[in-house]
Amino acid sequence: xxxxxxxxxxxxxxxxxxxxxxxxxxxxxxxxxxxxxxxxxxxxxxxxxxxxxxxxxxxxxxxxxxxxxxx
Length: 71
Known about the structure:
mainly alpha, 4 helices, 72% helix
């Protein structure tokens, strides 16, 4: 399923804001990480309807990916 592009952009903004707060990253750094993440690729490609998951769930997925890249 393909989501509305405007709605997806608003969702991305919410996810990045949550992720930035949880990770302690600046919004710009959180945004850069988000657009380079596997999570973003899955959401944007519509894999498993990831865009239907909650913002908090997707931010948590980003956090897991972020911690894995740090170690």
